[in-house]
Protein: Chromate efflux transporter
Organism: Shouchella rhizosphaerae
Amino acid sequence: MNNRRRSLLEVLLISTKLGLTSFGGPIAHLGYFHEEYVRRRKWLDEERYADLVALCQFLPGPASSQVGIGIGIIRAGALGGMVSFIGFTLPSVLALIGFALFVGKFGVGEMGLIHGLKIVAVAVVAHAILGMAKNLTPDLRRKTICLFALLAVLLVPYAFVQVVVILLAGLLGYFIFAKEGNTNHDRSVAFPLSKTIGVVSLSLLFILLVGLPMLATAMPSQWLAMVDSFYRAGSFVFGGGHVVLPLLEGEFVPTGYIGEEAFLAGYGAAQAVPGPLFTFAAYLGAVMDGWAGGLLATAAIFLPAFLLIYGTLPFWSALRENAKMKAALMGANAGVVGLLIAAFYTPIWTSTIKHPTDFALAAVLFSMLAYWKWPPWVVVVVGAGCGLLFF
């Protein structure tokens, strides 16, 4: 076996191990990656890892998945990024497709298990909002952007408004926070991709973003509509995996592709599996169109993350110096906090918390996450068990 194949196999095995064991969300994933890739295996040093994490926080998309893809690229070239993604993502994709097929076959939509998972979603999203608000809206200007984003999404309840809000928040940040984004760096870290790959990847990203809606309109098809919706959601998610919730809810629940009960149950179940939260798309796709739909949805929602990381790595040294790009991201991040608060109110809260018992269980689950620091998968098991016992 030559060195390239050995490196690819090594990336696949290690990333699969992490995909089976990395519970706890994107911040925890970055900790697992640091321990495995930097401290234990020394595939990259602290400086390069910090640069890679900074880039992936800077971009829209699933940050931990993009870091994993970047590490695969560093270790085994362009193909290594794809292999790393497969290993880290496939376990949770298969688990959530299996759960979707189970729900579809046995019709458990009215069972207490589902209600328990919905209450888990209340606790998880509330915990995510508090953490994100603390980090992403620390001053009055960003709190104000967050408030206007919240009002816009609640008062104009159309899916396209969410994307418009993110873009407008980024535009406000571009003008308001230019001085805050202006920081100096005295180091430059290169990544092993050519600028040609970068240009092709970014070009394809924007071509698909514009072309898929036009194609879906010209050639009506459920699969094309699914690809368009998941691709667009994956292109505009800033601030972590939880932000994908309002974008996907706006795309699929009002249109009748999936009911609120099934949507929130899947979101609760997604907390119980390791790996990236974006694999929630696999559950949605499988509910709508079986296992093939699950795989298609997964490919569509993660494709922008691939194109962004392959497209920006060759230019990161210059991009990281751009103060106005950082300023735009500061505004966009404040906007997505508003989006998430709106989604927390509807559909999560309004369709789930209807009795004092619901609120009591949500409070207990939230405390387990926020104060007692229990692992998320334990919280999911407790919530599902209480649903079976009490609802």
Observations:
- The chain has a mean pLDDT of 85.
- Residues 63-106 form the longest helix (44 residues).
